[in-house]
Input
Amino acid sequence: MKAIKLSAPRGEVTVAEVAVPVPGPGEILIRVEASGLCYTDVHLCDGDWEIVENLVKHDLTLGHEAVGIVASLGEGVSNRSVGQRVAAPFLRSTCGECKQCRRGEENHCPNATVLGMSHDGSHAEYVLAMADFVVPVPDGVTPEQAAPLACAGMTVLGGLKKANVGIGTVFGVIGVGGQGHLAIQLAKTMGARVVAMDIDPAKLDLAIALGADQAFDVTQPEAVEQLTALGMDVVMVTAPSHDAHRLALTVVAYGGTISLCAVPGGETPISMTLCGFKGLKLLSQAVATRQDLADILDLAASGKVSCEVTTRSLDAGPESIDALRNGEVVGRVVFVP
Output
């Protein structure tokens, strides 16, 4: 089968022919219909996250936003059936026994395994997943629309829930990309007033089209003053940029919350002094839980959220990763084998 491979962090990205994997106990083999390209793939290629490099499999098949049809079942699998359409997310498995798992925070399990990082991922014609960690895709949601929800969508939904965004919240999102364009729709569904921030006019136009109440080009001289005056209760950072984190600290209201959904490399320059004086809350999470994925798939099925998608073949993998790195992607690239 064809797969987009990364030799090692900071290594070579190629499209290669590899053997179709065979499911082991508890696993299922999925024939991939759609696989979303996430900025995490760029981070892995560029070696941005030194702290997790020991977790990254060498000769890795990239990808962790998978939707496809169950092709075969491993030993002991009784909760999935051949022919079923499922979504396989970033979180491949957890131990189920640690205190994080027991209190409903399985995405923070210290024993978790990760699709497209510790194990081969979904930018391929087939992928292995753990049967207990996939979620059925509701009728009416296409594979191309569902795939980005298995990371980008569930991450921002988890962040919005954690920040208690609701009716009357003034919510800002920095970065109208794969995560940000979904955060706008979800926040509006929750009843928030939404302020979008970016540096790309096309992405700001998309933000307004998706329901944002206001959109700001943060490169404009007056933007910071105008944004600060809005009194944003929650600012979500979805741009993998240290400048985005600095901006969030500046424009969020006193006593407000910053939701950190993008993880750039290196040391993020968050001023603890400014956090203290403004009384800010910093919230982060490692993607989200299976329940969050099920919830956002249901929202998609009811028409509450949709993805801005460009489909490409697996052969376009290397140049698609370059385009995402260079800020040339609007919405989400989805590979369709």
